[in-house]
Amino acid sequence: MTVLCAPSGWVQGFSNKNFGFINNQTVCYPCGNYILFLDIETKKTTVLQCPTGQVGAFAANGNSQVLAFSDRKLNPTIYIYNFPELSKLTELKGKAQLDYTLLAFSFTGPYLASYSSVPEFVLSVWNWQENILLCSESQPGVTATSLSFNPMNWQQLCFVNESSITIWHIERNNDEHHLKQNPVKLPDGQESVSPHKDLFFPVSHSEDPYHGPDLPVSAIAGLVGDEAETFVPRNDIKSSVHPTAHCWTAASEMYMGCKEGYVLAIDAETCSVSILQQKPLPEYMRKISDVVSYVRREAQKKKGGKPKDLQKPVLFAMVFCNEGLYAAGSEGILFFYHIKGLQYEMKICANVLQPISGLIVSPDYTMLLLVTVQGTIYTYKPAHSGEAVKLLDACSSCFLAADFLTPGNKYCVSVTISGEVQVWFLEDGTCLSKLNLDIEATAMACCPSSNSVAVGARRGQIYFLDVTKVEAPRVVHRIFLSEFPVLSLHYDQTGQFLIARATEGHIFILDARPSKLFQVLGYEVLSDEVLGLSVVSDFENNLVEVVVLLNVAETQRARLEIFCLSSALTTDNDKYVNEQGMLNASAIRKEQYDLDYPLSSAVRLKDNTVYGYCSCAPFICKYRLSKENILEDTSVFLSEKRTPSNQFGPGFLCLSPNGRWLASAAKDGVLFIYHTFTMDILAQKHCHSYQGGGIRSMVFSLDGKFILVNGENDGVLVCLKWKKINNIEVKEAVYHWHSLLAILNKSTLNENVALKSMAEWQFDPESTSEALPEEKFKEAPLKSSDVEVTGEDGNVTSWYSASTDEVTWIGQKIKKVIREESQRFANQKKELQMGIKKLHNTIQKMMRENEQVPDIEKLEQQEFSLDVEELERAQAEAEQEVARVRKEIEMENLANRYLQNVIKHECWDAMCVKGRAVKCFRMACEVRNYPLKEHSEEEVETLEKVLRLKKIETADLEVHKTNLEIESEIVSSKEEGEKAEEAMADDSASYCLTGSLSSQYGGDTSILYRQWDLHTREQKVNQIVLLKDIIYKVKTAFNKEFDIVARQKEQEIARVKERNLRIREILAQLELQMEVWEPALTDEEIPDQALTVQDSEIKVEKYLTQQEREKAEMLAKLEMERRLAATVIKDNERLRALNDMMGGVLEVKKEDILKMDIPPPPFISKPEDVWNDEEKEIFREHAKKVKELNEEKEKYKRTLKNELKKLEASIQEITQNFDETVCKLSERKVKSEMVVYQEELKIVNLVYALLLDEELDTRKAGLRNFLTKKEKEKVKTARMIQTSKNKIEAYVDSYENAIAEEKNLECGFTKEFADLPANLLDELSQLYSHRPKTPKTEMLLDTANPYGGCSGSAEDYQGALTPLMKAMDELDSPEHMPHGLDPSIWERFCLARRNKIQSEELVKWKALRLAEMQAFLQRRMDDNEKITSEIENIFQELTWLQEEKVKLQLNLTVQFLLKQGQVELESADIPDYTDAVLINKSVIEELNCSIMAQGEKKIASMMECKDFSKGIFQLEWEHKKMRMQIEDLQQKAQDIVTLPISKDRQLFLTVLNYDSRIAHQISMMEQTLGIMDKLHKKNVKNCQKRIEELEKCISSKERANYELSLELREMLVSVSERRHVLEAADPQHVSEKVAKQRYQEILKQKHLRGLVKEQEEQLEILQAEVERLRSRMFPIL
Length: 1677
Prior knowledge:
Layout: E1 3-13, E2 20-21, E3 26-31, E4 34-39, E5 45-49, E6 55-61, E7 66-71, E8 78-82, E9 88-92, E10 100-105, E11 111-116, E12 122-127, E13 132-138, E14 144-150, E15 153-161, E16 165-173, E17 176-184, E18 207-208, E19 212-213, H1 217-221, H2 226-230, E20 243-248, E21 253-258, E22 263-267, E23 273-278, H3 283-302, E24 315-320, E25 325-329, E26 333-340, E27 343-351, E28 356-361, E29 368-372, E30 376-380, E31 389-393, E32 399-404, E33 411-416, E34 420-425, E35 431-436, E36 441-446, E37 452-457, E38 461-466, E39 474-480, E40 486-491, E41 497-502, E42 506-511, E43 520-525, E44 529-538, E45 543-552, E46 557-566, H4 568-571, H5 585-588, E47 591-595, E48 599-604, E49 609-614, E50 619-624, E51 636-637, E52 641-644, E53 651-655, E54 661-666, E55 670-675, E56 681-686, E57 695-700, E58 706-711, E59 716-724, H6 727-757, H7 768-771, H8 774-779, H9 809-824, H10 826-852, H11 868-909, E60 911-913, E61 917-919, E62 926-928, E63 932-933, H12 937-967, H13 973-988, H14 990-994, H15 1017-1070, H16 1106-1130, H17 1133-1142, ...
Parallel strand pairs: 23-27, 47-51
Antiparallel strand pairs: 1-59, 2-3, 3-4, 4-5, 6-7, 7-8, 8-9, 10-11, 11-12, 12-13, 14-15, 15-16, 16-17, 18-19, 20-21, 21-22, 22-23, 24-25, 25-26, 26-27, 28-29, 29-30, 30-31, 32-33, 33-34, 34-35, 36-37, 37-38, 38-39, 40-41, 41-42, 42-43, 44-45, 45-46, 46-47, 48-49, 49-50, 50-52, 53-54, 54-55, ...
Helix pairs in contact: 12-15, 15-18, 18-23
């Protein structure tokens, strides 16, 4: 297998998540599967690939020049590499299952911290040099955002998440390590740090005799276990600030920035938090700051963003240095904070105008790296205080595509999704130039025949770039194809055609040559979904074959459509396309092949071989498009060969230019290259990963040496080169490349010349198409490709851009076709418009006539519609909508009915006594009964059980009483009398002691426990059951009385209705219009009525089904027949005469006397002087009868009125008596409510006592659980203390041995060199005690590093031995040897001195380790003492709880029933009755009487004193009043003396009637003003009348002119029409025809007039006959 190698190629990409310095000049960051190392000086990039996929967590240590990263596979591994060797030092394998989220190196020492994600959430600390996991701790559900060691002390670790911060202390005991958590209490959003409040152990235990002890909230909530310890009520939860960045100081403190804009200072030892405040600026600085802030806000407003406040910027990154603090955030400004105490001064160091996401400082603290969100990296040197210098201008957007620039062996071009185009140098990946198009790019391709690049956009545009100068690419042309997004772009190998694939199956063919201005040649629309497209060039036949892969949804198979493009398409374009620009089917020779598997990608070789990537299974299918491979179904092709693929997820295929290599890429990110003939795997490369979405696109270079691959979402572009490959394969690829260049060389030169001569395309700033954001086009729905044309003007609507005025290429084509057709068919169009207009007028006339006809003849509005299909469609849609709405209503009604049934069952049917009311007739009084449910079986069983238990207890109590009576026979008679008196008092006070009056209202209190006997929980529960039963009985007793009253009301209503019938009869006879009061039961009195809906309550039309409509029609028909029958009966002449003459009866009743009337004689109309004697006698008799009849009527009326008054009085008495009954029932209800409340109060007290008991038990259980945990912790701590003591004892022995060995070495030195002369021995002794200075690393000596003086650990001293030995080499040199000393002795001396130094260092190291162990032991002992004290406190609280429980059981709450006024309390505090004694009521009453008498005497004396003092006050007030009057009179006299006299005042003093004179002057002036006002109003009215007359005249003239103009227009039209008619026809023939028609009309009118006269005569005869018959039949009328 050949091998692909990325390091021999290059990798480009950017990730602003993790950055770090690996040394002073190199920065590294992860990107996809790679880690990139960027040299700041040379800008060169080095690549390290993760061996197992995508890089997860990442960290770098510039001091040690090592980096750590994790992979993202299952059970991930942490890799440690060094730099610059990039060799793997070690692998750390923990227990993480899915992923690591954070890694952090310690500033010094071999320590690494890691944090894993779900499901473990484990914080671990490693010794990476020895590959040892030191300690770990789990934090379930906590997601971390940052992690860092304290540079001054590696045993402190800062752990930050989104809303909290924790300081972890790493405690060490020799070879054991432990993590101890110290959470930091952060302030809330109001800058306040609330003190920690322990809710599980409250500070005080206040006691209340009634409410009980003060217990924690967890006990009240009923929580036991771990929840009780951590429970916090919702009201006590306050949102804290949200950390965004932090850094450590040299004093082991922390600075932290938060989203709320605050800067916090945190002490790592005490975990205390302080808020830093900005130091007030001087006045002149404040003014300058205000001006700068205003300028920045205005600039931000012009950019369209929100103005930001620079006083409290949100910091995303921090770096501490010796001078202060550097910080940056979303404003894009690098701030410097000079901090003194809790105040700081802030200044601006640099502004990069982009949000800054990270600050990284170099190990030597000479350079700051500013990483922005948009992918730009700046360098800033604090020592120079200059501007930030751009280091890397990357793009944070993902790469979309990449391609090779012709000739394909030197440059390549890439484009990102955001539209940024980059040109790269192929050899080393140097970015030569960039161009930002500010579009959402969707596709990109490089032209083989010129140095042009085509970029497709989401909005359907294609941009053409000139890259002849790779350092300065430019846009030279743009084509707006359609509104559909461009999905892919493809050039043929000759660079003649550009094929663009868009959505909705559109494929556009363009001329790829700049000399032709990239002309659009045509387009094709495919019906199915297009999955892919490939191009095959046939050099022999000068053809280009386009292979399109389609997805056939109906058959779940793939389909290939192949069509050919000839070079004649560019020369004679009109021959191959129609008027709308669509390619003719005959010209492109389209072929179609159905394949047997669904494919996601397909490529075709020149020998009709097709390779397809199967989407339903992991294999590659090979097809040969020939007739032998067709199935029985002639449209389906079988796969010839299926090659298994080791990839997963949807993938795609790519063919090399020479057709020898087939590349396969999928979502797993692995690239496979096969040989197209044998399908053997030539190479594979894991260049991307499935976590990053896999591979988005890849392409071969023309010479086959390079392969460009870019990922889906990881933002990485990889250039691969062959590391080793067969020479034959290389020669074939090079040969194909040279042969292709030979074809393209001539055209390339010409096209590049034309490309250079093209002017740069300018973005129009005023064009809305460029100003609109891309997001609007994302949201805009894709429209159909159909063309909609309006009826009259023919404007194209769908091919125009939805948000711009720019016309697409297809729109231009269609507009041109429409314009030509409009010109060609202008006359026909005009005729059609005239016909449509005439038809429109006719239909309008018909509609107006339809409005005037009767309703039965009217047509529906839709019947005038001429578009029958549209009408049917609208009707079908309306029916569907009606069906949908009906179904929704039915479902809603069903849900409401179900809810109604549930509520009715729960609240109505379950009630054995329904809730109802009784109202008074005449009063506003209402009484309601008690709704009751039946006792359930469980309740009945519980009650029976309690009653049996109470019965047994009563029997047992009686037995005890009997025994006591036998024993008490020896008691004296005096004592018996006292007991009898006490018994009588007990009987009189039974209600008082029972606490309620329920025995008087139906309840049996004899079954209850006595209130002072309720000590146990069981007794209280049984008492509650008995009290509930008493309440039920009280309510039942009241309901019985209520039912009696309710039935009484029904009877009274029936009686009133009987009397009302007679009252109505009397009123009818008296012909009085009076309203009769009719009592009735309301819905509250008959609640069943509320459940029945009457038809009169429904205000909308009722919907009837088909059966209901038929039934209604049948009933209506029967009703009509009944009415007809009644009409026939009414037409009976006999019955009608009887009704007319005698009221329909044959006998006259007494009640009808008022209806009787005596008819006057017939001669009454004559004058009296012409009457004869007989007539006068008849008139006298008539008058007598009338008088008698009137007397009878008056007498009968008086009788009826008396009866009416009696009936009304009877009704009034009935209603009044019933109202009194209801009032008594209401009083009974009030007393029953009182009794019920008394019993319920008992139940509430008992329930509260049970609740207190349960809370005490809960608290006790919680303390027991907490005690168990503390005891386990104590055992663990004790075991740890014992272990530590044992280790210390063992280590002390080792330490003492080391000290002894050191002393032995010193003594041995004296013995070993004792034979030397004294002077040499003294000199050697001095050299023996001489020590070199401890060497420091360069970093620690650097003054710019704030952490240079960090304290060392035991490992640091052990590690310092090696450099110390190196420093001893200088002292061991012969130069320092004393004169006259033998070299062999010097060597022995040097060896002895080295042993001595090693022994001293060992003693130091052991001393430090021993100190650490002793400190660990001391901390554990302190913890043990703390746990012991906590356990003692728990035992004390348990004892207190037990005492409180006993106290609550003995100290009972007893309810007494007292009269009003007998007990009065001035305050709500309950007195202490511990020493109270119950005494007789008479004693208190006598004492009260004496107190009242004395009080009256005191009040009388106080009244006398009050009256006397009142007189004194009155006299003092009168005296004060007189003194004030004297002062006023004196002041007035002084004012009169000093008053100046003016003319007005003289007149006032001399003139007698001064007021009348002034009034006369005022009246004269008012008259003058009135006259002037009247004159002015008169003039105004005259002017207004004149104006109105003129306006009326103008309007009449205008109306007359308008009417005349209309008449003139009509006359002109009629004249012109008549002229045309006369010219078209013979006038003489027309006049004769008109004369004949006129003559016929005259004859017809004459005939009709004759008929009218005859009919009028007949009508008169018939009317006379009718009058004659009527007089004969009804002579009286």
